[in-house]
Amino acid sequence: MPVPDAPNATADAAGGDGELAAGDFAAWVADMQRALRGQGSTQVPCGSCTACCTSSQFVHIGPDETATLAHIPSGLLFPAPRLPRGHVLLGYDKHGHCPLVRDNGCSIYEHRPKACRTYDCRVFPATGTRVDGPDKARLAEQAQRWRFSFANQADRAKHQAACAAATFLVEHAKELPEGAVPSTAAELAVLALGIHDLFLRVEQPRVPVVEPDMNMVRRRLTSLQRSARPSPGRP
Q1: Mean pLDDT in each 10-residue stretch from start to end of the chain (235 residues)?
Q2: SS3 state of residue 89
């Protein structure tokens, strides 16, 4: 089970050596949630970074992604466990690299899987979640460089709520519906974003972070489980 970091570990705008501007937090959350609903792709300022492509990650590809499947040799794909027929995973080589990555980046970038289009390593600092696994050291280093900016205290509270949600999921996993809490850091972070609003109670002029009623969380998680689509990547 991944362990969340301190809530404010990567909360301030970039300014130090090696730090990267992650953008406005509230705007990023809105964009990320739209991407996860299938209403667009994330716009990550990756530059030349390929950390997510070289960190031993399985990439889910759905049967409806016909253009993507047409550009990937079938020998690189295998059936996705516990998913309906037609859902496949793209694996990685002995170095942990996606086999489609070349020196200049993704060789099928214009036809890359939906999982890659929605993947955003800013999800880790957004929820105070630590990248798990020694084979993901490069990804962890990249994630730690991001620094969000905040327009106001209410937006800072949103960040604190997202971190609180991640911590809550880990600490109360046994009390929540079976299978509701993911075992990987990326999936945990995405889920925390999906329930972070439950950890906010609007009280003017402050927006405090609170721990919600357990039954509220259970109902939300059950609802998300019923409507869930296959996860966008398995870091």
Answers
A1: 50 63 95 82 83 93 96 95 91 94 89 91 96 89 96 92 95 90 89 93 69 91 70 41
A2: strand
100: nearest Cα among 128, 132, 68: 68
Cβ(55)–Cβ(135) below 8 Å: yes
Instruction: Read off φ and ψ for residue 179, nearest 5 degrees.
Output: 80, 0
Provide the pLDDT for residue 9. 44
Model's pTM, two decimal places? 0.81
Please spell the DSSP secondary structure of 143-188, one letter per residue.
Answer: HHHEEEE-SSHHHHHHHHHHHHHHHHHHHTGGGSPTT-S-SSHHHH
Which positions ≥6 away from 92 have C-beta within 8 Å? 56, 57, 58, 98, 99
Amino acid at 134: P
Residue 201 region by backbone torsions, left for phi larger than 0, else alpha for psi between -120 and 50, else beta: beta
- Residue 58: CA atoms inside 13 Å, Cβ hemisphere, count? 14
